[in-house]
Amino acid sequence: MTNLPLELQQKHSVLITILNEMGSMLIGYSGGVDSTFLLKSAHDLLGDNVLAVTADSATLTGDELDEAGEVASAIGAAHLAVKTDEFESEDFIANPPERCYYCKKERFSALKDIQAARGFKWVAEGSNADDDNDWRPGTKAVRELGVRSPLKEAGLTKPDIRELSRALGLSTWDKPSAACLASRIPYGERITEDKLNQVAEGERYLKELGFRQLRVRHHGDLAKIEVPADDMQEVIRRADEITTRIKQLGFYFVALDLAGFKSGSMNKVLNK
């Protein structure tokens, strides 16, 4: 780590201090950039005093769950997948702007139960210092339940975490940002498993074509595809085959968002 910028080394040192002070923890683990870096850092320091737990639900694809398990195994960390069912909550299904709060409250409550049963000192999660710049109602649930966010506490941003992950040799260092499938459905539109499956299958198909950073937004009969500006020409070139496949999933119309990919783009309507 000595070849990294001094400021980043200092932030990393703060993180190490925080993790050592925590002593043992159960980590809410998605297999993404942030939670993987947190798991690696904590496991390197604390070994078997760390357990990664992934919520296995309809909002996470099977591919993502498998990848999370594979990465945790490569790190050498213990990994547990726990079934959760957000569809038992009408607050989640109704899809209000606070949807993430209700989801996180259920998930981290389940993790708190596991923590108590297994004797870990803390439950931790992978939010970073950049997450305060977007609408993150799940943060309220994290605070209410006393869940720790070590990366945020250390002041680490997403670029910081990618750089540190690369230095540690983690395969996730350049992994595209992800979000739960429910984030593809506009606020106020009820969430169903069929809608989540349509989104998951559409995104899986586009990834198979070679696109890495993308979203398929569910607007009823319309599927809206978001990719970075550099990928738009390729989507247009393959428009016929893409349109045919996406329509087979149950959509009647397929559109390309000319504004390009933007994580959290559904939150723009909250400014109204």
Q: How many DSSP-defined strands?
A: 7
User: How confident overall, as mean pLDDT?
Assistant: 94
What's the CATH H-level superfamily name of the largest domain?
A: HUPs
Which runs of at least 5 residues are low in confidence (pLDDT < 50)? none
The biggest beta sheet reads:
4 strands, parallel
Fraction in beta strands: 5-15%
CATH class category of the largest domain:
Alpha Beta
Distance between the termini: 45 Å
- Integer tally of domains: 2
Task: Kindly report the spatial arrangement of strands forming the biggest sheet.
Answer: 3-2-1-4
How much helical structure, as a percent, in the residues?
A: 40-55%
> What is the C-alpha radius of gyration, as a whole number of Å?
19 Å
SSE string? HEHEHEHHEHHHHEEHHE
Number of helices: 11
What is the annotated CATH architecture of the largest domain? 3-Layer(aba) Sandwich
In the CATH scheme, what's the topology name of the largest domain? Answer: Rossmann fold
Q: Helices and strands: which structural class?
A: alpha/beta
General shape: globular
GO molecular function: sulfurtransferase activity
Active site: 180
Organism: Candidatus Aquicultor secundus
InterPro entries: LarE, Ni-pincer_cofactor_biosynth, Rossmann-like_a/b/a_fold
Which tags fit this structure?
about 270 residues; alpha/beta; Rossmann fold; GMP Synthetase, Chain A, domain 3; 2 domains; four-stranded parallel beta sheet; three-stranded mixed beta sheet; 11 helices
Per-chain topology:
Layout: H1 6-22, E1 25-28, H2 33-46, E2 50-56, H3 62-75, E3 78-83, H4 90-93, H5 99-118, E4 122-124, H6 138-144, H7 150-153, H8 158-167, H9 193-208, E5 215-219, E6 222-226, H10 229-237, H11 239-248, E7 253-256
Parallel strand pairs: 1-2, 1-4, 2-3, 6-7
Antiparallel strand pairs: 5-6
Helix pairs in contact: 2-3, 5-6
Active site: 180 (nucleophile and sulfur donor)
GO molecular function: sulfurtransferase activity
InterPro entries: LarE (IPR005232), Ni-pincer_cofactor_biosynth (IPR052188), Rossmann-like_a/b/a_fold (IPR014729)
